[in-house]
Predict the 3D structure of the following.
Amino acid sequence: MLATLVFVDVKPECVEAFKKISVYNHDNSRKEPGNVRFDVLQSNDDPTKFTLYEVYATPEDAAAHKQTEHYLRWRDEVADYMASPRRAVHTTPAAFD
């Protein structure tokens, strides 16, 4: 299993647009056969900071996600919304429900 945390800093004027396209990506990612979990989290302390928590059954499933229409659309659309480049941390769940 592969879990990825993606940290995104969004320009204040782009928060709502970022949320809209991220929900679209979430909804479609959850339909992927290898997707176990996909959460879009917004900071309570700073609403311009988001964390995407993505869990895929295999590294191959995670790689396949990057080829989907919904991911490519998300990636291209959010490029202008970001205040800084997004950062990803790849992990292996030690305990998972």
Q: What stands out?
A: The mean pLDDT is 96. The beta strands are 2-9, 35-42, 49-56, 87-91. The chain is about 35% helix and 30% strand.
